[in-house]
Specification:
It is a single chain. The chain is an alpha+beta fold. It has two domains: about 5-250, no CATH class; about 265-320, no CATH class. It is about 60% helix and about 10% strand. The protein has helices at about 30-35, 45-50, 110-120, 130-140, 145-165, 170-200, 210-265, 265-275, 290-310, 315-320, and strands at about 5, 10-15, 25-30, 60, 65-75, 90-100, 100-105. It has a seven-stranded mixed beta sheet with strand order 2-1-3-7-6-5-4, sandwiched between helices. The protein is rod-shaped and about 120 Å long. About 25% of the residues are buried.
C-alpha cells in the first residue's frame, strides 16, 4: 500500500490514493508493483531497479537525471541471548529512487515506512527537501548502532570471562555466530560509507551543494561504525583463538593422564612380559617366593614413580 509524505513545515502524512496537486516536495513509499505502474518514472530507472532491488547488498547507481540505490539492512540480534545471534536471518531489502523533485522508497515490506514514521514523529528534520529527508534516513539507519555494537562486545566479554573461569558452555558454533554477525555488519557499514560518499560527490548535480555536503557527515558516521565493527570482529577472532587454546589444554591434560598411567604400569608390563614368555627354563620361575618379590618390586616402583611425579608437580597439573 502506497504511503505519501508532504515536506511542508514538517514530514506530514497525506493521502496517497489521490493525485498530488501541491507544490511541496513529497516522499513516497511504494511496493515494486506500484513503482512499476508510475508513469512519471523513466523506464531506465524501472529497469535498473528490477536488477538491484533484491540484491542482498547496499549500493548506489548514479544516472544523468536521477539516482538509484538499494539497502540490505542486517537484523540485530538480542545481545543478551547469544542463541539469537546464531540464527541466520534475511536482511531487510528495499531500494530508493531520487530525482530533483521526488524521493521514492520501493519496499515490499514495512522497514522504510517505519523509519519515515519515526522521522515524522521526531520532528527533527531541519530542511524540507527530499535530499535532506534521504540524509536523515541514512542517519536513522545508524543512530543506535554504536550502542548495539558495544552491547555485542560486552556479551562477548562475558563469554571470555566464563571461558577463563572454565564455566562457559559455549561452542565453536556460538563463537562463529558472533564472528559472522560482526562481519555482516562490518560489510554493511562499509557499503553505507561508500553510498554516502557517492551522494556527497553529487556527480549528476541533482542535489544542492549544501545538501550534498551533508552526506559527508553520514559517510563519517558510517566510517566510525566500520572502525567499531572491525574491533568487534577482531575480538571475535580472539575469542575463537581462546576457545581453541582451552581445547588444546584439555587435550594436553588428557594426554598427560594417559602418559602417567602408562608409566606407572610399565614395570608390571615388563615383569609380566618377562615371565610370560613361552620358555621351558626361566631363572626364578620355580622359586615359590618369586611372586611376592615381584609384587613388592611393582609396589616399590609405583611408589617411586609417584614420588617423582609429585616432585615434578605432574599430579597437581593433572588435577587442575
Amino acid at each position: 500500500m502506497a504511503i505519501r509524505y508532504e515536506l511542508k513545515g514538517h514530514l506530514a502524512l497525506i493521502d496517497a490514493n489521490t493525485p498530488y496537486a501541491g507544490l511541496s516536495p513529497i516522499v513516497e513509499v511504494l511496493t515494486s508493483a506500484e513503482f512499476e505502474a508510475m508513469k512519471t518514472i523513466p523506464e531506465e530507472a524501472k529497469e535498473a531497479l528490477r536488477e538491484i532491488q533484491h540484491a542482498e547488498s547496499s549500493f548506489i547507481e548514479v544516472f544523468s537525471n536521477f539516482t538509484l540505490g538499494s539497502f540490505a539492512v542486517p537484523a540485530k540480534c538480542d545481545t543478551k541471548m547469544a542463541s539469537t545471534c546464531l540464527i541466520p536471518s534475511d536482511p531487510d531489502l528495499f531500494a530508493f529512487y531520487m530525482d530533483r523533485e521526488s524521493l521514492v522508497f520501493v519496499d515490499d515490506g514495512t522497514f522504510a515506512a517505519d523509519i519515515l514514521a519515526e522521522l515524522g514523529k521526531s520532528g527533527i528534520m531541519r530542511r524540507m527537501t527530499t535530499a535532506h529527508c534521504l540524509y536523515m534516513f541514512f542517519k536513522n539507519l545508524m543512530v543506535d548502532d554504536l550502542v548495539w555494537l558495544g552491547k555485542l562486545e560486552d556479551s562477548m566479554e562475558s563469554m571470555e570471562e566464563e571461558m577463563l573461569a572454565n564455566q562457559s558452555k559455549s561452542t565453536t558454533t556460538v563463537i562463529m555466530g558472533y564472528r559472522r554477525l560482526s562481519m555482516r555488519f562490518l560489510t554493511y557499514y562499509q557499503q553505507l560509507a561508500s553510498m554516502a560518499s557517492i551522494l556527497a560527490d553529487n556527480e549528476n548535480k541533482i542535489l544542492p551543494k549544501e545538501e550534498a555536503d551533508a552526506f559527508d557527515h553520514a559517510s563519517a558516521m558510517a566510517d566510525r561504525l566500520v572502525d567499531r565493527a572491525e574491533t568487534v570482529n577482531e575480538y571475535s577472532g580472539q575469542l575463537r583463538e581462546l576457545y581453541q587454546t582451552r581445547i588444546d589444554l584439555r587435550q594436553n591434560a588428557i594426554m598427560q593422564i594417559l602418559t602417567v598411567v602408562t608409566v606407572l604400569f610399565a614395570p608390571l608390563t615388563l615383569i609380566t612380559g618377562w615371565f610370560g614368555m613361552n620358555l621351558e627354563v626361566i631363572p626364578g620361575l620355580q622359586w615359590a617366593p618369586m611372586w611376592a618379590l615381584l609384587l613388592a618390586l611393582f609396589v616399590i616402583s609405583t611408589i617411586a614413580l609417584l614420588a617423582v611425579f609429585q616432585r615434578k608437580s605432574f599430579l597437581q597439573k593433572i588435577v587442575k
